[in-house]
């Protein structure tokens, strides 16, 4: 089964980073998602069942997950769901794995500071890719191609107005942070 899935939950284990024999970076962690419901009889929120997933990431995403995600944090994961089963000593075991395409912090539970990677440390936007034989997200930034390179100017006036002063806000396009005008 290769269905796309989006899961919101908590990181239940430390991220395990490694490299395959062919040199591909990997990062794996356990993700728990617990159902919450309102119990009208006790007028409280109660926890329901917890679903467990093993989240696997590769290449650039694995490096970013290893540096950014910590045990206990709330995250969103988008990827391909794979259900496997096996038998050991007469018992049948089942596991749900997600081959992650995206992992991010759930901002419902806190704030994050995003740092954009550029140069050869981040994959190119797939929409600009002219090589249809390359796997999704496998191309690197080509510094000779101006159309594909990241913007040179790191601070630009965003098309957003500050509602208090009616002045445009300055945004650092590398980090996404607001810059004082």
Please provide a written account of the structure.
The structure is a single chain. The protein has 181 residues and is mainly β. The protein has one helix spanning 59-68; strands at 3-11, 16-19, 25-39, 44-58, 74-88, 91-105, 155-161, 168-172, 178-179. The chain has a five-stranded mixed beta barrel. Strands 7-8-9 form a three-stranded antiparallel β-sheet, with no helix packed on it. The longest helix is centred in the middle third of the chain and has 10 residues, at 59-68.
How would you sum up the major sheet?
Answer: 5 strands, mixed, barrel
Compressed to H and E, one letter per element, the order equals EEEEHEEEEE
Q: What is the distance, rounded to the nearest whole angstrom, between the alpha carbons of the first and last residues? A: 51 Å
Number of strands: 9
* Structural category: mainly beta
Question: Poorly predicted ranges (pLDDT <50, ≥5 residues)?
Answer: 126-165
- Helix count equals 1
Radius of gyration: 21 Å
User: Residue-averaged pLDDT, rounded?
Assistant: 75
What proportion of the residues is helical, as a percent range? Answer: under 10%
- Share of residues in strands: over 45%
Q: Strand order across the biggest sheet?
A: 1-3-4-6-5
Shape: flat
Give a topology summary.
Elements: E1 3-11, E2 16-19, E3 25-39, E4 44-58, H1 59-68, E5 74-88, E6 91-105, E7 155-161, E8 168-172, E9 178-179
Parallel strand pairs: 4-6
Antiparallel strand pairs: 1-3, 1-5, 2-3, 3-4, 5-6, 7-8, 8-9
